[in-house]
Amino acid sequence: MRVVKEAEERKNEILDAAEELFVTKGYDGTSTGDILDKVGIARGTLYYHFKSKEDILDALTERIGNAMFASAKRVADDKKIPVLERIIKCVACLKPRSDIGNEVIKQVHKPQNALMHQKMEKSILSGVIPIIGGLIEEGVSEGIFTTKYPLYAAEMLVSYSQTAFDDNFEQTEEETMLRIKAFIYHTEKILGVAEGSLEDKMIGMFS
Amino acid sequence: MRVVKEAEERKNEILDAAEELFVTKGYDGTSTGDILDKVGIARGTLYYHFKSKEDILDALTERIGNAMFASAKRVADDKKIPVLERIIKCVACLKPRSDIGNEVIKQVHKPQNALMHQKMEKSILSGVIPIIGGLIEEGVSEGIFTTKYPLYAAEMLVSYSQTAFDDNFEQTEEETMLRIKAFIYHTEKILGVAEGSLEDKMIGMFS
DNA sequence: TATAAGCAGACCGACAGCCTGTCGGTAAGA
DNA sequence: TCTTACCGACAGGCTGTCGGTCTGCTTATA
Asked: Could you check: is the Cβ of residue B43 within 7 Å of any atom of nucleic acid strand C?
């Protein structure tokens, strides 16, 4: 019955189980007992590795955040690709991995998961904004963008798009389309490029 | 011992107590028992008026949202004042009433209050954005602003400022100042006004 | 090299304590 | 008398703790 593993391995097992459960049943909807059953360990073991349920969430958030950060970083550093395209690809990294599926997104935005949502968002934002800020900066020095505050431009665009395209608001398809167009329009203003010049490239970001 | 009151009155008593407790100890940190004690009623009474703890939060959020909405609306309709000033005053309505004090803000942003935070924000945004959107529209037809999407401009500015000036990020004073300047700069871009023209008026919003 | 002793890290599960929501029953006012 | 407001015991669930157990690696010893 008793199986001993290295701490790192157990921790990851617990995080794997927690990820699936949180994503399926929500954070509040998942009890530590559920995690125990899924991993097949005893209560004490869980609390040997993590000091609380929230501690598990924090570790999980960090793991996901790091993964996103890494893939965004990889894209951002690929100097062969034009800056604008790199930005768009970076933004794509913010979306949850497709193999988990769309259920996740719905779950994360249920009110019961406010805490999870908030932590995810914060972790994502703090990691990816500097990367995109750097890309905008690159664009500025290439002369294709114009802004005195590249980093804060990134902050504004990313953090707004996180809240606006979140399913937070229930909206019809036309509203969504309008919101997207408005977003692109204002992005052009913020980055100081000609009106309409980003439309073709950016429209693909939302699909 | 037994005191009978009208339902509306009791409900408000409960909401008053809940507001103070949520604000002091946080939503998760407040037990229904705390509320019971504070109001001086029994368990069953609470659940006679509200169907769950979250239901209390919802009612409270709505009450606060409505108050903000009303005062913003009043400001927005005062046609004697120039549009830009009205916008600034509306934004000021978003800040919590000063008589509750600053402790509130800190509480709301603690992780334990994610749910409260989220509900407040959503309620505020959905109520006030259309008002400010209308004001921007007014500005556009007066010829002082230029944007094809006044409503979404409002959405972007308000929702970004909510997340950015939230104590969410811990930041030094210089960072805050820089962020404010950047915000004003980008606001000018979004509203299509001359660079620097909003600085004097807007800087007062953050104090 | 074989064997025993020692030890720290991983693990277990009973249990305390809190918390939410329910329910049958009770008082009070119209 | 009937509806509306109220009461408080109680069930059930959940988190985090704690004393104790097991395991396998390290070190000592012959």
From this structure: yes
User: Between B53-77 and B83-94, two packed helices, what is the crossing angle to 10 degrees?
Assistant: 160
The pLDDT of residue B205: 79
d(CA B63, CA B74): 17
Cα–Cα dist B117/B168, whole Å: 11
| Structure tokens belonging to residue A101 | 């599926």
In terms of Cβ atoms closer than 10 Å to its own Cβ (0-12, 13-18, 19+), residue A143 is exposed
CB B166 within 8 A of CB B158: no
Please name the fold of domain A1-50. Answer: Arc Repressor Mutant, subunit A (1.10.10)
Residue A58 confidence (pLDDT) above 70: yes
- Spell out a b/e string for A14-32, using b for 16 or more CB atoms within 10 Å of the CB, else e: bbebbbebbbeebbbebee
CATH number of B53-206: 1.10.357.10
Among A129, A160, A169, A191, the residue to mutate for chain B (most B Cβ within 10 A): A160
> What average pLDDT is seen over chain A?
89
pLDDT in tens, B5-34: 888 999 999 999 999 999 889 899 999 999
pLDDT at position A35 over 70: yes
Return the domain boundaries, chain A. 1-50, 53-206
Q: Which two tokens stand for residue B75?
A: 């400001």
Asked if the model's pLDDT at residue A96 lies above 70, the reply is no
Whether B99 shows a pLDDT value over 50: the answer reads no
Distance CA A140, CA A136 (A): 6
Q: Angle of helix B114-142 relative to helix B83-94, nearest 10 degrees? A: 180
CB contact under 8 A, B186 and A156: yes
pTM: 0.89
pLDDT band, residue B39 (cuts 50/70/90): very high
Q: Which of A29, A110, A61 is nearest to B111 (CA)?
A: A61
DSSP codes, A119-183? HHHHHHHHHHHHHHHHHHHHHHHHTS---S-HHHHHHHHHHHHHHHTSS-S---HHHHHHHHHHH
Asked whether B27 and B5 are in contact (CB, 8 A), the reply is no
Residues 102-161 of A with CB under 7 A from strand C: none
Find which nucleotide's C1' atom is closest to A6's CA. C10
